[in-house]
Specification:
CATH architecture of the largest domain: Up-down Bundle
CATH class of the largest domain: Mainly Alpha
Helix content: over 70%
Radius of gyration: 30 Å
Structural class: mainly alpha
Largest sheet: 3 strands, antiparallel
Shape: flat
CATH topology of the largest domain: Receptor-associated Protein
Order of helices and strands: EEHEHHHHHHHHHHHHHH
Distance between the termini: 95 Å
Strand content: 5-15%
CATH superfamily of the largest domain: Type II secretion system (T2SS), domain F
Number of helices: 15
Number of strands: 3
Strand order of the largest sheet: 2-1-3
Length: 406
């Protein structure tokens, strides 16, 4: 049975380099003795080597995110384009990583490559972080002898994809935040503020306005059943999340409904077109056959409507249709995108035109999100004004009525 691999620990060191200059840094090793030996091999005479303790605010324990993979890909591409050997590039990239999970993965990939495995096969051992599209593109780069160029394209693709995801998340989060803030403010007023006024009104001995009675009744229900309402909201959130994860039909329904939402629906439409064009441009430029590239684009579209349409395009292209005719027949893609594809096909520069389509719609998403943010600011003020103002008016109506009688 193979020996268990020793756990690497981060050590902070101080010492002198070959020129006698003082220097310091960090190194990963199995022990202090091994760390000192590694430093001496690098021409450094260590004077102090200490184990680095993780800060409670450090990111070393956090999970690896898709953005981390995008940054890792960009760093690896930059190193290899600069002529740094792959194994050494992995060491350099791993040395600058703070997250333990990501660092361990990079070291595992490096060890696998060092033992003779190709990069694509090594990446396939981590399917959570490197999907089939990523691995297939790396494999194509290795087969063509242009791995550095391919990694650069993949890095650009990942960066653009994550940037687009962040914009969509921003667009979706803002309205939800408004609703949550409105609910919290209303709950605080109903549970804490309205009861104070209610006790004052009991001493009036006069009939209260209907609106005030309604708010007081609402406050009584909120005080009595707030924990039930909170439990229902939390349980509903978990149920929706679990159903979304397990039910494909539910996910498809959410996709269709989201495209019909005002303002946000248009952002999602443009984002899906941008993802389609970006994925197709990257895969087609890598030498992947158009039919296979369309299949990858369908998987990356992020919405069932566009996924179905792209698969329809793939079937059309498989039977001999041109890409422009196949996309036009779906009735999903805008005329501008179809025309750009037509120009690319006729000029023999389809990947370049698709790249321009992707950039155009990514900018459209960016502008739409900025516009949504500008529109939501007065909307937030209006919502909070109506909620808070309505409750305040309800509480002061009896006082106004009493003043009028006097």
């Amino acid at each position: 049975m193979a020996a268990k691999e020793a756990k690497l620990v981060t050590f902070a060191w101080e010492g002198k380099d070959k020129s006698g200059n003082k220097s310091k840094g960090k190194i990963e090793s199995e022990s202090i003795a091994f760390a000192k030996a590694q430093l001496r091999k690098q021409g450094i005479i260590p004077s102090k080597v200490t184990k680095q303790r993780a800060s409670m605010f450090s990111s070393s324990g956090k999970k690896t995110t898709p953005l981390d993979i995008a940054v890792f890909t960009r760093q690896l591409a930059t190193m290899m384009k600069a002529g740094v050997p792959m194994v050494q590039a992995f060491d350099i990239v791993a040395g600058g990583v703070e997250k333990d999970s990501l660092k361990k993965m990079i070291i595992d990939i490096k060890n696998d490559v060092s033992s003779g495995s190709n990069l694509a096969a090594s990446l396939r051992k981590f399917p959570i972080f490197f999907d089939d599209l990523f691995c297939n593109l790396v494999h194509a780069g290795e087969q063509s002898g242009a791995l550095e160029t391919m990694l650069d394209r993949i890095a650009t693709y990942k960066e653009k994809t994550e940037e687009l995801k962040a914009k969509i998340k921003k667009a979706m989060t803002y309205p939800i935040a408004v609703i949550i803030v409105g609910i919290i403010v209303s709950a605080i007023l109903l549970i804490k503020v309205v009861p104070q006024f209610e006790s004052i009104f009991k001493g009036f001995g006069a009939d209260l306005p209907a609106f005030t009675k309604f708010v007081i009744t609402l406050s009584e229900y909120a005080q009595a059943y707030w924990f039930i309402a909170l439990g229902v909201i939390v349980a509903s959130g978990f149920l929706i999340r679990a159903t979304h994860r397990k039910s494909e039909g539910f996910r498809d329904g959410v996709d269709k409904f989201s495209l019909k939402l005002p303002v946000i629906g248009q952002i999602l439409h443009k984002a899906a077109i941008a993802r389609f064009a970006r994925t197709l441009a990257t895969t087609f430029a890598a030498g992947v056959p158009l039919v296979n590239a369309l299949e990858s684009a369908a998987g990356a579209s992020g919405n069932v409507i566009y996924r179905t349409a792209i698969l329809q395009v793939k079937n059309g292209v498989s039977t001999g249709q041109s890409l422009q005719n196949a996309t036009r027949m779906t009735g999903v893609f805008p005329n501008m995108a179809v025309q750009m594809i037509a120009i690319g096909e006729e000029a023999g520069s389809l990947d370049e035109m698709l790249d321009k389509v992707a950039s155009f719609y990514e900018n459209e998403v960016d502008n739409a999100v900025d516009s949504l943010t500008s529109l939501m600011e007065p909307f937030i003020m209006a919502v909070l004004g109506v909620l808070v103002g309505g409750l305040v008016i309800a509480m002061y109506l009896p006082i106004f009525k009493l003043g009028a009688v006097v």
